[in-house]
Design goal:
Number of strands: 13
Number of helices: 7
CATH architecture: 3-Layer(aba) Sandwich
Strand content: 15-25%
Shape: globular
Distance between the termini: 23 Å
CATH topology: Rossmann fold
Order of helices and strands: EHEHEHEEEHEHHEEEEEHE
Structural class: alpha/beta
CATH superfamily: NAD(P)-binding Rossmann-like Domain
Largest sheet: 9 strands, mixed
Strand order of the largest sheet: 3-2-1-6-7-8-13-10-11
Radius of gyration: 17 Å
């Protein structure tokens, strides 16, 4: 991502009560960064991250389709000014196969993008935020991203989430903002193995919605902790770098 105005960027996290984004949250707070988090259930965060220990953390209660809550998550106050955060990380995903969950990624991203426009109209200052989204392997319509043995699994069990993730990706790519889309392999729990164990595949976005494969890595799984670590190190720490801007990054072991 392009360098923001400071080496200590402000963040807005969506989907941080668990999984990859929680790992991003933990590392960002340990580094002293200011973070806004939208949480449907704030109590899932307040116990582990008490305000007395992390005064730079602001937790906004609400869900990803709540425009007002999303707008509050995207801004912070500096003196008498309201400013947009510099980096947005979304790890929103389906929690069940209920009807309302089937479009949660697409709806959530559309709400984030429209809320950026709305906060601008209301006078929020600062550069446009950079967007990092966690998608999934299997979203490519141009090439195989998963091992042959996993194709039936993705076709049966991940088909509906993939449809939603693809629509989310399309919204991000058409947003006009600077972005990076992550497609990790099957996510598992457990302690970090370290970035030395992570293999990276890269696609660069082209005009017309097509992608050019720059490098390819196919694997079975990766731990959520290592996805969060990669996001923090490559896209958040020090404001991130330009290397991953406009690219779809596959992560696996």
């Amino acid at each position: 991502m392009s360098l923001p105005t400071s080496i200590s960027p402000t963040l807005a996290l969506f989907g941080a009560t668990g999984g990859c984004c929680r790992a991003v949250l933990h590392r960002s707070l340990q580094a002293g960064l200011s973070v806004n988090v939208l949480a449907r259930t704030p109590s899932k965060l307040t116990t582990e991250f008490p305000s007395t220990e992390y005064p730079q953390l602001t937790i906004i209660g609400g869900n990803i389709r709540d425009a007002k809550a999303v707008e509050r998550t995207l801004t912070f106050t500096e003196g008498t000014s309201t400013k947009l955060v510099e980096i947005i990380v979304s790890g929103v995903g389906m929690r069940s196969f209920g009807e309302s969950e089937r479009t949660v990624c697409e709806d959530g991203m559309n709400c984030i993008l429209s809320s950026i426009t709305e906060t601008r109209a209301e006078g929020a200052e600062g550069d446009d935020p950079k967007i990092v989204v966690i998608s999934t392997k299997g979203c490519s319509t141009e090439r195989r991203e998963v091992p042959v043995l996993m194709i039936p699994v993705y076709a049966v069990f991940v088909r509906i989430p993939i449809i939603d993730k693809r629509k989310m990706e399309t919204a991000v790519r058409k947003s006009g903002l600077k972005w990076c889309i992550l497609r990790p392999s099957h996510l598992t729990d457990g302690e970090s193995k370290g970035l030395a164990k992570v293999r990276i595949g890269v696609e660069k976005s082209q005009k017309g919605g097509k992608s050019e494969t720059q490098s390819e890595e196919i694997g079975y799984s990766i731990r959520r902790e290592d996805v969060g670590l990669w996001i923090y190190q490559e896209l958040v720490c020090g404001g991130g770098t330009e290397e991953w801007e406009g690219k779809i990054v596959g992560l696996t072991y």
